[in-house]
Each structure stands twice: as structure tokens, then as C-alpha cells.
Design brief:
- It contains twelve helices and seven strands.
- It is an alpha/beta fold and 289 residues long.
- Strands 1-7-6-5-2-3-4 form a seven-stranded mixed β-sheet, with helices on both faces.
- Strand 6 (232-237) and strand 7 form a beta hairpin.
- The protein starts with 8 loop residues before the first helix and ends in an 11-residue tail after the last helix.
Length: 289
């Protein structure tokens, strides 16, 4: 049986930008509709992704809203890509898909993140992020570096919302021992993990060195689940970032998540491991579901 594919990542990106541009101009859907001679309901459905996007329609709205030329070219290219599934981009110093990942995280009902070598971005403290990004690219200017740090830390705000998504993170034990920044930075980062783990919407687990070979050894990933849209998988490798939508790809990532979870430590044992590393007592009961 064919699954409902929902709206493609490309269309979700364009729809989100159409709404953002309208709000930036402080206009209503009715005002835009009158400006381009569309119905108000059509504008609304285009912004929510409830109808398909056509190049001529999108071009008319972008022109009316006076979208910058580079953004207009980017969005038109996405529209012309139609319903092609999966989205891959090569990243420069300022990754173009970061804002899309942040937006999808804000819309998600659940975020499941597995990392092999590092503490996940959404769980990093600024000092850890700064040391990590600087170590990965010495050519970053100070403004570029601080911009990336601010963008990554801003992602964490969603975990404090009233309607915050469920956040489940699994991290390989290696990430707890790799020194990113100085010793105090690592201690503060691990304390932050313990603090996050006390939140009702956050679950963290550690995958210990002693585990067998498992599906997670193929690399990190994020699963983004939504109330009214199909699940997305986001993966990064050196210099590339991909959103995966096809059922086969997403099902494969879901299977990997289940395999990793089956061998991860419990939340209590994971908290105890972190506490032991930083030499602080932590009641494991606080982290048990």
C-alpha cells in the first residue's frame, strides 16, 4: 500500500518563505490576494502547503512582496524542482540548510537525534559550540563564528516552549570523552546534559563502548516527526546536508534508531555514567521515565 507522501521538503521551504515575506511586509493574506488577483484562500493554502505550488503563481507573489533577487532565484529553482523527493545541499561556511533544519525542528512534534562523535547541536553550550566550529574551520572570521554559535544555541529555545517537542537524544560514549575546548568546557557541557535530562520532554541515553556492532556506526542522523506531515530524516556528512523523505530511506533510519535504542544504556545509567565522568553524584532515579 502506498503511503501518503505529504508535502515535499522543497514545497515546505517555499511555503514557509512566502508566509515569512508576507509577515515581513506586515500584510494580510487578503492584501496579497488583492495585489496579485488571487483568492484569499489560495494564498492561505499556498503558505500552509495545502495546495501545489506553480512557478507563475509563486513568481507573482515574490514580485509583489519585493523578495530579494537571490532569494527569488533560490525559491523559483525549488518550485521548478516540483515533487522530486529528498534534498541535498553542499554547505559553505554558513550552511544554507541550517535555517530549514531549525524551522522543521520548530514545527516537529518529536525530534530523535543520534550522534556518534559529538554532543548534538541542540544540546550544546556556547563554549562547546565555539570550540567545535573553530577547530573544524580555522578560516572562519569572528563574526561568522559568532553567527554560527548564535544560530545553533537559538535552536535550544524550542525545548523550553509550552508546546515543546519531545526530544530524545542518543550519544555514543566517545562524545563524552573527546575534549572539545578546555577541561572546564567539557565539564560544563556534561553538566548541561544532566540538566537537560531532568526536563519532562527530554530523554537522553548513552551508547557504551562495550556494545556490539550496530546500525549507528554508519553515522549520525536526526528523525523529525510531525503531527500532520510524514517523518523526515536529516543527515550530514563532510560538506553535505540532506533531508530524506522517500519511504525506503526514512524506514531505514527508523530501523537504525530502534537498533541503537535496544543497546543504549537506560536513562538512569546514562546519567550515572556522565556524573561519574565529572565526579559529581547524581541520583539516577531523577532520569528514569
Amino acid at each position: 500500500m502506498t503511503k501518503n507522501k505529504g508535502v515535499s521538503v522543497r514545497q515546505r521551504r517555499v511555503s514557509g518563505e512566502l508566509r515569512r515575506l508576507r509577515l515581513l511586509r506586515k500584510m494580510t493574506c487578503k492584501q496579497v490576494a488583492e495585489g496579485v488577483d488571487f483568492s484569499e484562500s489560495k494564498i492561505s493554502r499556498m503558505e500552509t502547503g495545502d495546495r501545489g505550488l506553480y512557478p507563475d503563481d509563486v513568481a507573482a507573489i515574490l514580485g509583489f512582496l519585493q523578495a530579494p533577487s537571490d532569494l527569488r532565484q533560490e525559491l523559483m529553482a525549488l518550485v521548478r524542482g516540483g515533487e522530486e523527493r529528498n534534498w541535498h545541499e553542499v554547505n559553505g561556511k554558513l550552511p544554507p540548510t541550517w535555517k530549514d533544519l531549525i524551522r522543521f525542528e520548530e514545527q516537529a512534534s518529536a525530534i530523535k537525534n543520534y550522534e556518534t562523535l559529538l554532543i548534538p547541536g541542540i544540546a550544546q553550550i556556547p563554549e562547546y559550540t565555539r570550540a567545535l566550529l573553530h577547530g573544524g574551520d580555522h578560516n572562519l572570521t569572528d563574526p561568522e563564528l559568532e553567527g554560527l554559535v548564535a544560530a545553533r544555541i537559538k535552536r535550544q529555545l524550542i525545548l523550553s516552549r509550552r508546546d515543546a517537542p519531545a526530544f530524545h537524544v542518543m550519544v555514543d560514549e566517545m562524545a563524552l570523552h573527546r575534549p572539545i575546548g578546555d577541561q572546564e568546557t567539557m565539564r560544563a557541557q556534561l553538566r548541561h546534559l544532566l540538566t537537560l535530562g531532568r526536563r519532562s520532554n527530554v530523554t537522553f541515553q548513552i551508547v557504551p563502548f562495550s556494545t556490539r556492532a550496530h546500525a549507528g556506526l554508519r553515522g549520525p542522523f536526526v528523525l523529525l516527526e510531525f503531527f500532520n506531515e510524514p517523518t523526515l530524516a536529516h543527515v550530514e556528512s563532510r560538506g553535505t546536508s540532506s533531508f530524506l523523505e522517500e519511504d525506503d530511506f526514512v524506514d531505514n533510519v527508523k530501523a537504525a534508531w530502534r537498533d541503537i535504542r535496544s543497546i543504549a544504556l537506560s536513562t538512569g545509567d546514562s546519567a550515572r555514567m556522565i556524573a561519574d565522568i565529572i565526579g559529581e553524584p547524581t541520583p539516577a532515579e531523577e532520569y528514569e521515565p
